[in-house]
Queue: 2 jobs
Job 1
Amino acid sequence: MCGIVGYLGKKSVVPVILESLQTLEYRGYDSAGVAFLEQDCLNVYKASGKLNNLRSRLPVELFQKNGHSRHLGIGHTRWATHGAPNDETPHPHVSCDGNIALIHNGIVENFGELREELTRKGHIFHSKTDTECVVHLIEDLAKTETDFLKVLQQVTRRLVGAYALVIIDKRHPDKLYGVRNHAPLVVGIGDDELFLGSDVVALVEHTNQVSYLQNEEIVELSPEGVKVINFNGQPVEPLVEKISTGNLAVDKKGFKHFMLKEIYEQPDVLRNSLSMRLLSPEEPIQLFDEAADAKINEIERVYVVACGTSYNAGLVGRYFIEELVRIPVEVEAAGEFRYRNPLVDEKTLVIGISQSGETADTITALRQCVNKGAKVLAITNREDSTIARESHFVLPVRAGIEVSVCATKSFAAQVTVLYLLGIYLAERRQQSSPELLKSLKVGLQRLPVLVENVLHTSEEIQTLAKKYGNVRDLIFIARGINYPVALEGALKLKEISYIHAEGYSASELKHGPIAMLDPSIPVIAILTDGIVYDKMISNCQEAKARDAQVIAVNSGPMPEDVRDTFEDAVFIPQLEEMLSPILTVIPLQLLAYHIAEYLGKDVDQPRNLAKSVTVE
Ligand code: AGP
């Protein structure tokens, strides 16, 4: 996923563009570029790598706030889909005649045939990107059509794929253009200034008046205002919304990395997720309005579709909802689900879990379910996202902006919302005893304080990070509702420290993986005081018998006679086993963070990743 911004207004455009790109850099940071008009000249600067590399290439006069004549520009941070990150692939891409500059988020699937056609017509390509074919296509069509909006309409008839485009043309020095087709694009409306951005966070410093473009819409921003048409050329009245910018602030608040800040935000995030939904353990949980309540309670089965950490949260939800509600819950990676013609119908509740709400695989899977008549519920951190807008029901997780590519607080918030959903469904269907449901609600209310307790283990975890940070492989094991936490712990470590790690059900170890174990492969075991505790102890003893160093994340008392099984142990507060994943995941988040920090890795912007993967 890439970050794209455009600006038209009275301020000096380059600083505005760079500040906005800074807030979007988490969306992709393989390369960056900016293009702006000055008098009748189109200036373009690009650099591979982080935004700072681009900033260092820009002449200092571009940063002067006054006495400038630079009012129109576009900027881009890139997560490479086509073409390795180098000095040719960054956007903006420019037409042969030097009049048009374009930036793009998404994928043009038919770029190969377009490139061949345009090359035959004499266009010269400077990169292997799919994006570059779009700017040459615009240039080509503009030769026979002077109305730029009509040109863009024609372009959309030739492109196949998901794309958000932002374009400037030096022949239209007071106009900024945008095109949206299945990739987010939002208009910002300020005082005598207009913005385009792939995410509202890029605009909140300047305005709280926004209009979200819908699919198949084209926008022209000019001193006359905002003009929107659909791909058929029909005018569209833009819906302008006033957004609350408070929780969109992007600030480390004194922490070294966003990831650590977001790990420490979890107690408050849980309070936000629970607030107005869990009023008292004696009261039934309120999640939906009456109409939605009736529809959701007709369902007979649940599918959860998600990716990455959101998928792992869904796995926790499955254990919980099946146990309490006694209906089948299947969880599948969205990228797999959508290709197997799933059996969903009007009696199926499909839950799409997505922090960003823009993950292409999840969007496509949910669209398929909507078309099959299923009831689709989005559990997301972005109420302004595509997934939220296209689902029948939405449960916002209210985690606040999560900047670090490595998801942490959003996992806790997603799992909390799944817990609330499970209890809500059980109460509506008189499934599970009221006593059990009440005790779970009491447990949920205790979670924020218990999480604060677990955060106190950070220094202890930091010591473990130094002890185990140089290993090449690491295994995470657990059972039952904490098995997904083993998967999540492995994912955290892999994605920010680049150490190979795997999560296994401890029951599976003896069916093959135990053959790998030796002193060089530490095993992190999650032990919770529940029905599988003794089995977990046995699995840890099997691992120790193969000379593996076993580290326990243990909630509840550990019998003296088994303590020597473990090389190290982190003790966390006891809680109902079904609610324990919210606690057991925290030492794993901290371990991944401290190892990555100890190894000097780029914690918030790990190589090759982006915060939201908006390509399939
Ligand atoms: C998690 O740390 C990763 N950043 C990644 O697996 C992420 O969870 C996945 O891409 C899904 O993103 P989403 O929740 O925004 O859909």
Job 2
Amino acid sequence: MRVLITGGAGFLGSHLCDRLVSDGHDVICLDNFFTGSRDNIRHLLGNPNFELVRHDLVQPILLEVDRIFNLACPASPVHYQYNPVKTIKTSVMGTINMLGLAKRVKARILHASTSEVYGDPEVHPQTEDYWGNVNPVGLRSCYDEGKRAAETLCTDYHRQNNVDVRIARIFNTYGPRMALNDGRVVSNLILQALQGEPLTIHGDGTQTRSFCYLDDMIEGLVKLMDSDWNASPVNLGNPSEVTILDLADKIREIAGVEAPIEFGPRPEDDPTRRSPDISLAGRILDWAPLIHLETGLERTINYFRGKIK
Ligand code: NAD
Ligand code: UDP
């Protein structure tokens, strides 16, 4: 199949390129290199089944493809808040462009949504039928509301134009190829530990997240794309919830360092608890994450060690 991956030079997108090329598909990787990097896909550049298109998804593009994975959008708060208007444009206009393309060439499209559609949730763990608790005018809104609007667009293109749509609500995912300057908690704490700097924790570190290793996520995304489940959102993530303080302890232990912790202020609207209910994905995709946090952190720490040498 001819598969388009938008955001294909990013962290998740580049691993998806690897997986789909090795499954024998013809892959077109589209990226504007805002947070993605040529280094993530350099090894694929000579492969006859791989093509790179430098393009900004805010502008329309016509390509003949059978499937579209729509991942283009900065994912780290530091990056998506750098140019918030551009972030919401990428989610809304980029998704309209990809849904229009899917309609025109009759491609199936999987949209990368996020647990951020639940905002600072009042329901634990989060199930797909929870509508969320999102501030429409806060610092995270350009991302959260952009992703919510993108889900609306996917659903309406399905209802109105019968576009074959999959919506993955991705929860915090980590692993090799996260950018060194990514700014999300796993990469920040690992880099700090390896560089002998204090580990920065926002607030008292009792807020929770549930971290999924990238191999599990890629498997979930591929299974969802291949499934018959049309249009309604599916949570993908690892349900095992940890506090940020526990995460810092694990990273220090696995990296073998005794770096101190430096507590700072909590950012505005920072969600307090987050954990996915993945029973729907289990039932319809026969999917569940297999990689424990300790194993995933070990692999990620090894990757970062190689990068900062
Ligand atoms: P990332 O920042 O590494 O990748 C995003 C990619 O999109 C980058 O290569 C970037 O250059 C590209 N991009 C951004 N704006 C673009 C534009 N206008 N036109 C073309 N390309 C553009 O982030 P990631 O972690 O790989 O996330 C990939 C997708 O998954 C994103 O849509 C993100 O919202 C979603 N997601 C990720 C996580 C996670 O924890 N990693 C969680 C929830 C959702
Ligand atoms: N965080 C932290 N130190 C950092 C970066 C993030 O304590 O150096 C916290 C952040 O405030 C949040 C959690 O870790 O409570 C996860 O943040 P991240 O940016 O990775 O993802 P998101 O908030 O989007 O889930």
